[in-house]
Amino acid sequence: MPREFVELAQSPCHCRAVTGRGLDQALAAESVAVLADVHGNAVALEAVAQEILAIGPDAAVFLGDLTCGPLPEETWGAVRGFCSRFEGAARFVRGNTERAMIEAATRLRDGSGELTARERWLIDAHAPETRQAIEAFEPAVTLDVAGLGAVRFCHGSPRSDEEMITSATTGARMQALIAGVDERVLVSAHTHIQFDRTVVGIRSVNPGSIGLPYEGRPGAFWALLSKGVELRRTVYDIDLAVARFRESTDPFAESIVEMLLAPPTPAQVITHAEALVYSS
Fold it and tell me: Which element (helix H / strand E) includes 141?
């Protein structure tokens, strides 16, 4: 793969990133690790990072909703640690929680609206330099992956970071949400359910959630693209994650613990998502 990288000088995270390339100029890669919906679960991310480092893919794409959870700075520290040892390129896609935090921070700065207790907590729990790095996340990323061709990576869908794509999304909605997008392989996140399907000529992939999966079984879920799609699951110490969450001052910590230990079933999430379409 090309090695046209520079360090992200504006960011405290020393991942190497491609410069001078827009969404229409895809970086070529033989293999890509895809990590999504960590939601501040640093314990799960550290376990997955070790596995990815052992595999050594050409690139890693973080699909958003990365640090907004009980352990935001610990999670960003895990990202920085991963990047310091990763030889490939790392790309970061903005999720709806990153966007919401940036918008809340803007309202706080401008005095232009009320913030919830959770919004205030998330802003305070992220160091200013971490928030600055998050503001540089991209709305979408395109990579040319061996065996798959041009692949579009986004958080929700190409048209909204809150649109929920599932394994039951109709062909008509898939055609509508992919309108104007040239890529025929779409990797998205947001619903926390892992799948790989082809509908109306579009290969739709969700790597699952690392930090808060809705899979009916424990683990950290992610994907490896390499001449195909490999849906992966990494076992980690969930009891440690629960203990760390409960030590957090996150107002939502206990609710997140409950979802981690007793998540909704995939069928429940799919029914809910297809009824709403957009999570907002």
Answer: strand 141-145
59-62 vs 5-7, strand pairing mode:
unpaired
Spatial separation of the C-alpha atoms in residues 150 and 144, rounded to whole Å: 4
**pLDDT for 255-267, tens place per residue?**
999 999 999 999 9
* 185 phi/psi in degrees, rounded to 5: -120, 125
101: its two tokens: 């935090």
Chain-centre distance of CA 265, in angstroms?
Answer: 20
Q: Taking residues 112-121, what's their average pLDDT?
A: 94
When divided into structural domains, the chain yields a total of: 1
* CB crowding 211-250: b at 16 or more within 10 Å, else e: bbbbbeeebbbbbbbbeebebbebebebeebbebbeebeb
What's the CA gap between 212 and 260, in Å, rounded?
Answer: 6
The residue count for the chain? 280
Query: Using CA atoms, how far apart are residues 66 and 45, in angstroms rounded to an integer?
Result: 10
Q: How far apart are the C-alpha atoms of 91 and 142, rounded to whole Å? A: 10
pTM of the model: 0.91
Beta bridge partners, 151, equal 143, 185
3-class DSSP state of 61: strand
Cβ(68)–Cβ(103) below 8 Å: no
Residue 14 in this model has a pLDDT that exceeds 50: no
- State the CATH number of the domain containing residue 30: 3.60.21.10
Residue 183, pLDDT above cutoff 70: yes
The model's pLDDT over 134-157, given as tens digits with 9 standing for 90+, comes to 999 999 999 999 999 999 999 999
pLDDT attached to residue 280 = 83
Domain limits for position 133:
5-276
Report, as an integer, the average pLDDT of 45-65.
Answer: 98
- C-alpha 34/C-alpha 62 separation (Å) is 6
